[in-house]
Amino acid sequence: MAIQVLIVDDHAVLRAGLRMLLDAEPDIEVIGEAQNGATAIQMVENNPPDVVVLDISMPGLSGSDAIGLILKSCPSTKVLILTMHSDVIYVRQMFQRGAKGYVLKSAADTELITAIRKVHTGGVYIESSLVLPANSSRTCWPCPAPGRAERRKRSATANSRCWSTSRTDTRTARPPRSCTSP
Fold first, then answer.
1. What pTM value is reported for the model?
2. Of all helices (H) and strands (E), which one includes residue 3?
């Protein structure tokens, strides 16, 4: 059975392009399109998809606000974020809210299909440009630097919250967690 996908983005041209890209895959079926979070929630309630491809920034109910409501109405649906936002703060926030994947629009043509298949099977997918290489000497993503006064109060390690890439490869990174957590 084909993976049923709902595309949620406020730009009609992007939705049409994504539909063409996904319709070319024999194991993926686009079952609908929505232009905002409110419409997406109604569509999920009426015809639950396997995967919702969701933009963060939309007028009305944004993807950021809609993700929790989508998962509440249909917990088995997987949410894959497709956005222009590459800032780690957005990535972390979407995973904390329940997303299972994160892909930048600039890489949608090469990574979206793989991401849909990965999250559908229960995996986690983070676009490769957002993940540290496995051979990196850094153990976590950089986080916003605290202000000068804050740096004096706390050490950078205690203040930093970032992603660990140990024990992961670049395509299946673990969801965000503190570098200091187990």
1. 0.73
2. strand 3-8
DSSP codes, 83-108: ES---HHHHHHHHHTT-SEEEEGGGH
- What six digits make up the tokens of 76? 């088995």
Domain definitions of the chain by residue range:
3-130, 131-182
pLDDT classification of 108: cutoffs 50, 70, 90: confident
Asked if residue 30 lies in contact with residue 23, where contact means CB atoms within 8 angstroms, the answer is: yes
CATH 3.40.50.2300 assigned to domain 3-130? The reply is yes
Identify the residue with better confidence: 50 or 180: 50
Nearest to 164 by CA among 144, 150, 180, 153: 180
Those residues with Cβ within 8 angstroms of residue 56's Cβ, 6 or more apart along the chain or in another chain: 62, 63, 64, 81, 83, 85, 90, 94
Written as one string, the DSSP assignment of 24-80 is TSTTEEEEEEESSHHHHHHHHHHS--SEEEE-S--SSS-HHHHHHHHHHH-TT-EEE
Three-state DSSP class for 125?
Answer: strand
Letter for the amino acid at 93? Q
